[in-house]
Amino acid sequence: MSDDDLFCLTQNGDMEAFNVLFKRYERKVYMYCMRVLLDEDMAHDAFQEAFMRLYEHRMSYDGRNFMVWFFTIVRNVCLNLRRNKKVTVPFETSRANESPAKVTDVVLHEHIVLALNQLPIDHREALVLYEYDGYSYQEIANITGVSIATVKIRIFRARKLLRTLLHPVVYDNGV
Questions:
Q1: Of 17, 20, 129, 174, which has fewest CB within 10 angstroms of its CB?
Q2: What are phi and psi of 65, to 5 degrees?
């Protein structure tokens, strides 16, 4: 059954249909929130809020494209949380007992997270939707409410800035 069909059933009060949609989207929504917000607690809050809003606003769904409509809700929740809370980077404990390969992977991951956090939110959002979530340029344009050309520019600029930010880490440190 398609997402649109399931959501129509949800509009008519079918909680089983809503549960199926929840199972289909829970990982994708959480990962999106985590990659955009870069904070586990905020991502968890956004995840819960997005599904609550989905259910609360189910009657305003116009039947066009469930995924685009829902990810517009998810995006707005993330943007509101980000605007209302300061993002902090937690202090990590020592990794002295870990293997060198694992430490290198963890260090590189931390640098990537920090570099992503330095991108403008609209650039990071477009890059996350494209690279991590696998959405097309058209779908990203629909979710964010901008043109396809703007989406392409944001992704291009995000990649370029990431290369600049990560170059010293990758090439100078031999990671």
A1: 174
A2: -150, 105
